Structure to design on (205 residues):
């Protein structure tokens, strides 16, 4: 299978000297055929974040990145064009490992320390919470993603692999086909009609 050349933008966070160093990699002329691939590019150091971070998510429309401090209630924003960080809000409570996804004017926050979904409204600088689907399925997850219309989560825990869709307009949860295995931490991403899921602290991925 051959894929044409494309430009890809990648922003990643690397822990260094007790803080996180933001690196930007712009890749050019990527060509893949079968299992062979050639990737070329360079990393450029950008401004250090003010704290260790978790749950980095990107707002490509407005040119921002958002992330939580690890073991913290502090939400940070990175201005891509200005190459600068700022603390913009504090969540209702202290959070541990956290994942974020942005849909519309809101950031949706899933954390292993909470059984519900936190929502941060960016223009209003205000917080609210969305209850878990039912009392037996508290979220406690770091797996959250959006397809641009709805919010999707996979429940945390070694015995759960339930996949849920949250309709932001109707305010309702819908159970979907479960993931192949339970997960602990891990990650969930959406691209071009598919969700990509990694279990995390286990052999399944």
């Amino acid at each position: 299978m051959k894929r044409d050349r494309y430009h890809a933008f990648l922003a990643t966070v690397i822990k260094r000297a007790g803080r996180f160093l933001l690196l930007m990699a712009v890749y050019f002329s990527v060509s893949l055929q079968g299992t062979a691939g050639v990737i070329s590019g360079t990393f450029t150091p950008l401004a250090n974040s003010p704290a260790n971070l978790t749950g980095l998510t990107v707002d490509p429309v407005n040119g921002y990145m958002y992330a939580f401090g690890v073991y913290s209630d502090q939400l940070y924003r990175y201005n891509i064009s200005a190459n600068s960080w700022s603390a913009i809000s504090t969540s209702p409570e202290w959070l541990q490992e956290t994942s974020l996804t942005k849909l519309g004017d809101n950031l949706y926050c899933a954390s292993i320390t909470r059984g519900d979904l936190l929502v941060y409204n960016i223009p209003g600088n205000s917080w609210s919470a969305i209850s878990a689907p039912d009392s037996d399925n508290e979220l406690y997850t770091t797996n959250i993603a959006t397809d641009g219309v709805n919010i999707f989560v996979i429940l945390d825990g070694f015995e759960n692999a339930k996949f849920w869709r949250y309709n932001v307009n109707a305010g309702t949860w819908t159970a979907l086909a479960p993931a192949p295995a339970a997960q602990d931490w891990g990650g969930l991403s959406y691209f071009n009609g598919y969700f990509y899921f990694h279990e995390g602290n286990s052999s399944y991925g």
User: Anything to note?
Assistant: Residues 17 and 190 are 32 Å apart (CA to CA). The longest strand covers residues 19-33. The mean pLDDT is 75. The two ends are 24 Å apart (CA to CA).
